């Protein structure tokens, strides 16, 4: 899952990003509304965690812009205001969910996971394919009942492949969904990660390399 965090309080923004990355999410961080619109214009995010009170372009206007452009990603609006009217306004603007500050980080994680499942196409909370079960909320993977220990990046790649439901995912597609914008597209990081993931999942191999196209589970 790829997430954009838009928050002008840099300490909070960076802390949220660290926590989401521990959940195997690819996270980009920006600190104002103008940069948020620049990022969403060129990147597809499953979830945009959007502070409402932003410098430059206000968070409300960022949300309106995304809705008007029929952006596929879901919007989780953060705000210091927790009144009912504030929540109604945020949801009316186009936010898919609304979380008041201060918030429990576990709740933020749960809401991001829930929105990610709804980003298209709708998927069950626990993914199953080829004897593999993947539980994003509990960060747990099993193959034929055996627990498999994965790094956050391996977990993210497996999740992208399982969400594809048997269709081929290109190396570029994996890079876009499982790594943030700082990833070097000219490295072999995707190939190496898939290789170690395949080894950890064991025999018979379940990840197929499709020459010239990508990978399929």
TrEMBL record:
<dbReference type="InterPro" id="IPR001789">
    <property type="entry name" value="Sig_transdc_resp-reg_receiver"/>
</dbReference>
<dbReference type="Pfam" id="PF00486">
    <property type="entry name" value="Trans_reg_C"/>
</dbReference>
<dbReference type="InterPro" id="IPR001867">
    <property type="entry name" value="OmpR/PhoB-type_DNA-bd"/>
</dbReference>
<dbReference type="GO" id="GO:0003677">
    <property type="term" value="F:DNA binding"/>
</dbReference>
<feature type="DNA-binding region" description="OmpR/PhoB-type">
    <location>
        <begin position="124"/>
        <end position="217"/>
    </location>
</feature>
<feature type="modified residue" description="4-aspartylphosphate">
    <location>
        <position position="51"/>
    </location>
</feature>
<dbReference type="InterPro" id="IPR011006">
    <property type="entry name" value="CheY-like_superfamily"/>
</dbReference>
<protein>
    <submittedName>
        <fullName>DNA-binding response OmpR family regulator</fullName>
    </submittedName>
</protein>
<keyword id="KW-0238">DNA-binding</keyword>
<dbReference type="InterPro" id="IPR016032">
    <property type="entry name" value="Sig_transdc_resp-reg_C-effctor"/>
</dbReference>
<dbReference type="InterPro" id="IPR036388">
    <property type="entry name" value="WH-like_DNA-bd_sf"/>
</dbReference>
<keyword id="KW-0597">Phosphoprotein</keyword>
<feature type="domain" description="Response regulatory">
    <location>
        <begin position="2"/>
        <end position="116"/>
    </location>
</feature>
<feature type="domain" description="OmpR/PhoB-type">
    <location>
        <begin position="124"/>
        <end position="217"/>
    </location>
</feature>
<dbReference type="InterPro" id="IPR039420">
    <property type="entry name" value="WalR-like"/>
</dbReference>
<dbReference type="Pfam" id="PF00072">
    <property type="entry name" value="Response_reg"/>
</dbReference>
